[in-house]
Write a structure and sequence with these properties.
The protein is an alpha/beta fold and 469 residues long. The chain is 48% helix and 13% strand. The structure holds adenosine-5'-triphosphate (ATP) and magnesium ion. The site of magnesium ion (MG) has 3 residues, from helix 7.
């Protein structure tokens, strides 16, 4: 639907003479008018085209105008609707307003009054869009500022984001869980020309397979037992805007086939419907799975993979861009302490060291949770000892007597310290928070020689930089 929808009005009334009359009036005033004589016709038309406004008679043959209005709003929730009521039926008019009508007009109507109402509804609509657009502009600044990217890898990601956001190309975001896929998807949306139009996000893994298709593409009344009324679906809701299909690797094959068709033809058939719906939607997908492998094992369609793999953006895991950790930690600390209203000023050097050494299997999200936990429990205005990181999972190991287990743990800890400091005892002692002499004694007790760690090849030591704490 690329024609100008800003002048299109849909009028629903079962009186054809009335429709003729109102058409003449509205066309003279420069509007484009489409009329419908009954509910079914109105719904079918509303699904195919986007209207700037609709005028609905309260008294229709089979249902009342309010029910029709609600169904039309489930197709396009933003369209203002003016209800026409018989003289004196003030109660129904009030009910219509409560249920979402923009306004009501008595029949027979005063033509001047009608045009005034239409102008007002449209002006209101424009204001709503303008507010959204401005919010978007603010958000854009805010959101780009909110993405921490010191490492070259992340700078390249942001560069790609700003170069492609303004296009309509499909964006394919991949990355481990917690690397910021959703954050990047939103940043793209806010930086795009569609920022004042809807952003609709759906997590394909969170919706039961059987519901995903109707959730995305909508259904016709009666398409299945519970379909009491038609439902527009998320693709319709995101018309002219952006849809974010998160965890697309979890989309069932049957839904993949339908999605492929939407991407190719820009239109689709809601469940149980024979009328196609045309949509103009920018698609962003995200996955933490290796979709190429999924294609090879047959659980993801190859043709769909190539359709969506247009602009790939790969978010590197946090352990491969450790230089982002300090800035991220400070940024998350500010964000969290603001949110939970605790004035925490910073993170101590020792605590930051701990954060730098950890491998972050859960990426930025895990860092965020760690800091949130520390902020919540700290009684100081600086985070120090409160940083708690998971050590390796002891539950999977056979149980040993406590003393033995503690000794094992200590030895392993010392080994890692020495590996990390390449046998520098002063540094290792400082990291462990012990005096140098104490530390020597500990090493002796565990039969460890610092010299053994001095000439470790680089490869090995850089792989083992995490310290269980
Ligand atoms: N570069 C970054 N700068 C600032 N905050 C970030 C950054 N990356 C991620 N975050 C924050 O980390 C959290 C996790 O990010 P997000 O939800 O976007 O990740 P995801 O890849 O979608 O994760 P999942 O796979 O778990 O859904 C969010 O609170 C997000 O704001
Ligand atoms: Mg996510």
């Amino acid at each position: 639907m690329t024609t100008d929808s800003s002048k299109k009005i849909l009028v629903v009334d079962d009186d054809s003479n009335f429709l003729k009359l109102i058409r003449i009036r509205l066309e003279l005033a420069g509007y484009e008018v489409v009329t419908a004589l009954n509910e079914d016709e109105a719904i079918a038309i509303a699904k195919e085209k986007i209207f700037a406004l609709s005028i609905v008679d309260l008294k229709l043959v089979r249902r009342d105008g309010i029910a029709l209005m609600q169904e039309m709003h489930s197709i396009n929730s933003l369209m203002p609707i003016i209800i026409l009521t018989a003289h004196g039926s003030i109660e129904s008019a009030v009910e219509a307003m409560k249920k979402g009508a923009f306004n009501f007009l008595n029949k027979p109507f005063d033509p001047e009054e009608l045009l005034l109402q239409i102008e007002r509804a449209m002006e209101n609509q424009r204001l709503v869009s303008e507010v959204r657009r401005l919010e978007g502009v603010l958000k854009e600044r805010y959101d780009f500022k909110n993405i921490v990217a010191r490492s070259e890898k992340m700078k390249r990601v942001l560069d790609l984001v700003s170069r492609t956001a303004g296009t309509d190309s499909t964006i394919y975001i991949s990355g481990e869980s917690g690397t910021g896929k959703e954050l990047i998807a939103k940043a793209i949306y806010y930086a795009s020309g569609r920022r004042d139009k809807p952003f609709v996000a759906i997590n394909c893994a969170a919706i039961p397979e059987t519901l995903l298709e109707s959730e995305l593409f909508g259904y016709e009344k009666g398409a299945f037992t519970d379909a009491k009324r038609s439902h527009g679906g998320l693709f319709v809701q995101s018309h002219q805007g952006t849809i974010f299909l998160d965890e697309i690797g979890d989309m069932p094959l049957s839904t993949q086939a339908k999605l492929l068709r939407v991407l190719q033809e820009k239109r689709f058939y809601p469940l149980g419907s024979e009328r196609p719906v045309e949509v103009d939607v920018r698609v962003i997908v995200a996955t933490n799975k290796d979709l190429e492998a999924e294609v090879k094992n047959g659980s993801f369609r190859e043709d769909l993979y190539y359709r969506i793999h247009v602009v790939p953006i790969d978010l590197p895991p946090l352990r491969d861009r450790k230089e982002d950790v300090p800035l991220l930690a400070e940024h998350l600390l500010r964000k969290i302490s603001q949110r939970i209203k605790k004035d925490i000023k910073g993170i101590s050097a020792m605590a930051m060291q701990k954060l730098m050494l950890y491998e972050w299997p859960g990426n930025v999200r895990e860092l965020e949770n760690t800091i949130e936990h520390a902020v919540a429990i700290t009684q100081h205005d600086i985070i120090t000892e409160e940083i708690i990181l998971p050590s390796k999972d002891l539950r999977t190991e056979p149980l040993k007597p406590l003393n033995e287990a503690v000794d094992d743990f200590k030895r392993e800890y010392l080994v890692r310290l020495l590996e990390f400091t390449k046998g520098n005892v002063s540094k290792a002692a400082e990291l462990a928070g012990r005096y140098r002499a104490d530390f020597y004694n500990l090493l002796k007790k565990h039969n460890l020689k610092p010299d053994d760690f001095k000439n470790l090849d680089k490869e090995k030591s850089s792989q083992r930089t995490s310290i269980p704490v």
